[in-house]
Fold this protein.
Amino acid sequence: MKKISLLILSVIIASAVVFVGCKKEDTAKTDSTNLTFNNKIFTPITITCNSETKTIAVGGSVTYTIEGTSVNYTASTKGTTSSGSLIGLEMVWDNSVTLSGGTQSLDLITSSSYFFLIIQNSGYSTLQDLWVNKDLASELHYSSVTFPWSSSSNPTYETGYFKAWTNSNIKISYVPADGLTYYYYLLQGSTFSSPFTGNFTLPFTENQSKTLNFTPQYKSLIEETTSIPLTPGAIPQYAKEK
């Protein structure tokens, strides 16, 4: 009887060791990270991370919960016309992020090498035939794009992202009641000072936009610059042109 009891005890101990070992493997897991992407620019961003695609509204954010120590993501944004055609540059991100567990926050932004252009028409003539960076290597021309006026408001039109140079320029035309074509020609510099040819200013900051408010009947222009601040504690992620 003593021999049988010893044998049974040995089997029980061996079984317990195997069970404990399996349990340890099942409970060993990698910490997860709540990774938040913030849209700090001027158009919606489409992002794919962890095999899931989401859209980040302007000023909004999305969060992914991810296992592991790193993850890749891609994202893109662009300005479009009323018909959906591209205007300006398409901006993209394609990065790998090291994950530390807990929470992390990333700001999707543009560098000071780009600016977002907004056109406001406060006059009685349609603005048209837009050139950005005319005669430069990054020249873009939109001969069929129009910016209509309104008798009840001063409509604002968001266009797209463009290269920011120390000699950036903008050319746009309008045709008043006399049927003649007039052009505004604006050169990056200090301040606008002339009815048809003058300067506009770029601050060369991250996330910069330039609003140009034209009033053709008075041959005037008011300019406004906006730079969206970053999220405190967030890591900046700079876009590149596609």
